Structure prediction request, 516 residues.
Amino acid sequence: MRRLIALLCVSSALQVGARTIWAEEGGPAGNLVLEELARVAEPTDIRHAGDSRLFVVSQLGQIWIVRDRQTTAAVAPTPFLDLGDRVAHGPEQGLLSLAFHPAYAANGRFFVTYTRADGSSVISRFSVDPADADRGDPTSEKILLVVPQRGPNHNVNQLRFGPNGYLFVAVGDGALEAEPPCTAQQGDVLLGKILRLDVDVDEEPYYDVPGDNPYTGDDAARDEIWAWGLRNPWRLTFDRETGDLFIADPGRQGMSAFEEINIEPAGGPGGRNYGWKVMEGTRCRGIVEGCDVPVPPCDDPRYTPPAIQYPHDSPARCAVIGGAVYRGSALPQLTGAYVFGDFCGQLWTAWRRDDGWRLEAMTPNLFGVTTFGEDVDGEIFVGTHEGRIYRLADAVLDPTCEPDEFALCLSGSRFRAEVTWRTRQGAEGPGTAIPLGADGGWFYFFRQSNPEVFVKVLDACSGPSHRFWVFAGGMTDLAVTLTVTDTRTGEVQVYENPLGTSFLTVRDTRAFETCP
Prediction:
């Protein structure tokens, strides 16, 4: 059975075999789950190339193809690209992102960012093997940029193409010290920034600066910079319908820290300063230690506040992991929601409203989320540090009880109750069912006016036993067998009453361990 991990936050829950489904009562997202699709070691990015394949980036230095998205035996036996010989692997180092050129089908070009042996971040272009569409050519590397790093964390970590065909590059602030550096506020370095590059260039350095970049020609800032004031923008995405840019930026450790999502509307001029390290979300840190250039004070209008933020007020919140805006067709109830998570387990949806964004916490049960991605159809996938790739899907429940004259369908048609009887003379048969309500009913054997066995199945998941309960009473001394089946798990409970004995009351308050 496919492993399903609960997605949405809720007030009620039920477990279905190996599956746990959390449902938000009345919420727009309804019942959603994460279905395990494949396993790839230490996934850092999930991309598509304009076709049905998924490409999963491993921090270890490989890119793997997941070809058949309907099965769990889906990872190709050999990688699409193996850069293990040139990638330095560490807690935040390695092969970190992949972006296919918008014209990949015609030019076969794709771009990656990785950490090399000296700790620098490399942004490179590669080409697909012209003889094999499932193999990238490791000898085709063209290095666009090498970004020197201060330490082994907060490096260049993601590449994404925007609606205009330019390549956006997320660069962390290179922080290693206890108090982070001020690189995000310094225009002469690329750290702590979003860069925007024109990569349709065939001569070194294989990129150009778009003429409308906000700092083109400004001696105080690098021409490549699109936005700045970021700590470690981990996972950025463009809404494929609106073109809006979503930038997730983790906060510092500690209960006073904030995680933030910055959103740039499509068509903007760039040049936004998101405030780090003076600001963290809307919280004033006011620390300018290490800033070799003048920086605006807290709450200065030159800083752009986040569109969404949340505090570290739960153990499940420690580092935001940027997601994707849902634009697929399989989950219409989720259309327009920004789905993202936290490495420590919290999952979220954010919904755009007239007065801003409404943030909905999900069930904190998916520890180690490292990345999100979309397939060509706009469906969302999630990767975890332990190497599991999940697909966001509807909670498709197992078949429910189908009523007939010899069975009661109880507790929302989940449980099927049946009774058989046997007389001293050896006659036997099924009891005839008479439903009384959603959780109870009775059976008669010979005459409808003569109730012989009453049955109830109660949802006691919120009670002390945290299970479904079975109760039964009877007015007969025939041999009776009561069978109750959980149609979603296949679990069966059988209760026997001996011939010649008054019906023994059933009070099974631990009947079905199907609650979460």
Summary: Helices lie at 104-107. The chain has two domains: 4-368+377-394, 408-512.
